[in-house]
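hiii, so i know i said id send this last week but things got crazy w the move. better late than never?? heres the sequnce for the chain we talked about at the cafe, plus the structure i predicted for it. fair warning i was half asleep when i ran it
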Amino acid sequence: MFGYNGCDSKQVYQECQYSWLCHLSDLTPCTLSDMGKLDPNSPQAPRFQIADDIVAAIRAGEYAPGDALPSYKALAAEYDVAIGTAQSAVAVLRERAIVVTRHGAGSSVHPDLDPKKLPDSVAQHVAVPTTDLAEVLKLLNEINERLKVVEANSRSN
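okay and structure toks below
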């Protein structure tokens, strides 16, 4: 992303006495702080960067359990991303039981969340309840037993 004298194009437009185009020769690379909170050089997808920022804000006490999060539109504007990317970031947090979303009410920090137990990075941590894993194992064992019966029947024919 480029801007006039290191600032973003919106700021240039607001501060420039002339047309933004009159300063094209003065374009210089923006710094990360000028570009918002996303790191364009990060191997981590924007949705995970945004989710990690929200987790850091929860850990820092900016959002307490039960507090409402900004709307998708506000998150998209804050991070200069599409609304779909903001929705994906909140979905990542919802999948990890960090936030809850209610239709018409928006998203909020999970009321039973202990901020001290939050992972450093949501991209690396996927919480899977033990009961779900036990159910998957049970189903796999049932499939294995059925497969043995099918194989035994096919050998006898």
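btw The first strand starts at residue 2 and ends at 4. thought thatd interest u
miss u guys!!
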